[in-house]
Amino acid sequence: MVRPVDITRSPDAPTDEIRSLPQRGSGVLQWLGTFVLKIMRWRIDNTLPSIPKAVVIVAPHTSNWDFVLGLAAALALDVDAHWIGKHTIFRWPFGRLMRWLGGIPVNRQATSGFVEQVVERFNQSDQLVLGIAPEGTRRKVQRWKSGFYHIAAGAKIPIVCAYLDYQSRVVGLGLNLMPTGNFETDLAVIQDFYAPYKGKRSSD
């Protein structure tokens, strides 16, 4: 059975509990994210989970605009979200910029595997939100990659489902679940959650 995580924000909940997600703490960036979404005519379903760590999967992923919308939403919500990149793009002169944008370098040729490196990063962090596109490509795929699941299971943290619905122009957070250890069962629940949402190009 999938174990849900309560993401309801009570008006009486303490502020520190509500904001247990890592923050950037920049009013300017928060304004910028809000402005970008406004001019693109998108809105946010801003129910935030009161958890310090999570693997946030973002789907459906069909366009390069998905990254822009996801980053703008994270800035607007003042969430310090991260993403994974090949370690070579973090070298000079772009390394500092990549890290400032939330990038986490991973060496795919290292002795320890990709999943192990990311799990270790979670274990070393008090707060960490990592965004991953589980489809792994903008093209339509029959099967999602399983890396996001094994990271969450290894770090013992919840998977949070973020969606980009181009039909309603809404970006938001929905289903949260703890991995049960049965990937196929949990994936079926996750993909069922995403079924109503439409990407920019649904026929890719």
Q: What does this protein structure show overall?
A:
This protein has 204 residues and is an alpha/beta fold. The protein has one domain (19-194). The chain is 32% helix and 21% strand. It is built from 7 helices and 8 strands, in the order E-H-H-E-E-H-E-H-E-H-E-H-E-E-H. It has helices at residues 15-18, 27-39, 65-76, 95-100, 114-123, 147-155, 183-194; strands at 3-4, 43-45, 53-59, 81-86, 103-106, 128-132, 159-165, 170-178. Strands 1, 2, 3, 4, 5, 6, 7 and 8 form an 8-stranded mixed sheet that branches. The two termini are 33 Å apart.
Number of domains: 1
Oligomer: single chain
Structural class: alpha/beta
| Strand composition percent | 15-25%
| Outline type | globular
Helix content: 25-40%
Number of strands: 8
Q: Distance N terminus to C terminus?
A: 33 Å
Poorly predicted segments: 1-19
Q: What is the CA-based Rg, rounded?
A: 16 Å
Report the order of strands and helices: EHHEEHEHEHEHEEH
| Whole-number mean pLDDT | 83
* SS element count, helices: 7
Quick synopsis:
By secondary structure, this protein is an alpha/beta fold.
Features:
204 residues, alpha/beta, eight-stranded mixed beta sheet, 7 helices, globular
List the helices and strands and how they pair.
Blueprint lengths: L2 E2 L10 H4 L8 H13 L3 E3 L7 E7 L5 H12 L4 E6 L8 H6 L2 E4 L7 H10 L4 E5 L14 H9 L3 E7 L4 E9 L4 H12 L10
Parallel strand pairs: 2-8, 3-6, 3-7, 4-5, 4-6
Antiparallel strand pairs: 1-8, 7-8
Helix pairs in contact: 2-3, 5-6
